[in-house]
Predict the structure of DNA-formamidopyrimidine glycosylase.
Amino acid sequence: MPELPEVETIRLQLQKNVVGKKITDVRVVSGRKLNLSPAQFIRAVRGATIKGARRRAKLLLINLGNGWTMVIHLKMTGRVLLEKDGTAVSKHAFVVFKLSGGKQLVWEDVRKFGFLKLVKTSKLDDLWKKQGFGPEPLDSSFTPQVLAACLARHKGKRIKPLIMEQTCIAGLGNIYAAEVLWFAGVHPNRATGKIRDAEVKKMYDGIRKILPRAIDYRGSSADSYLDLFGKPGEFVPRLSVYDRDGKPCLRRDGGIIKKIRTGGRGTYYCSVCQI
């Protein structure tokens, strides 16, 4: 599933390449994942100018100049692709936006878990409250104390499932939660109440180091993720623990990376340095 670095990569690319473009036409291939009927959706967005691209947690937001915002959740296999106008779209395409300047923007989803909701921009804060999103981990308001407070509220929970909850840290998912815990030397099954202050600070430092670096490399294409231009991210070779089952720990401590299931998800950890 695209996590914060992958969604942020697409946001940055949209901001650079489509802001100011006009949506001259819209083709709804399938309206199954829209919150409006295809006719209502087309009426609302056709002719609008793209005003900006934002992100909240793992949600991609495309602000329109007419007061609407498209809220896209890529879920497991969703993609937003910028192509030359007239390029044949895949059978997994849901919506195709024709843009001024000879481009088309395509939203597709192989497994069809994602969605596109059209929301009044003025109502977005209400949506965030309803979702209960936690702090953005790259915002200045996210501090070690904020992270510690989340852990303190859930002392009986295991740490990895907790930091993947969007109410605790917005945007963190399976890949980067594993990376952060390896960075901090914390076992993914450790109870949060048994994590020391120094380890919380180390987790915080890992979040602030790993996420920006992943964005610099356009995210991790561990599965089907592609960026706006259909290119895979380049961070997978730089992952320290995720999907390295059976390989030596990069700390050269004699540990071997193991895979276990935690909170219903596969996770990876070093058998020596994560305790």
Notes: The domain at 4-122 is CATH 3.20.190.10 (N-terminal domain of MutM-like DNA repair proteins). The mean pLDDT is 98.
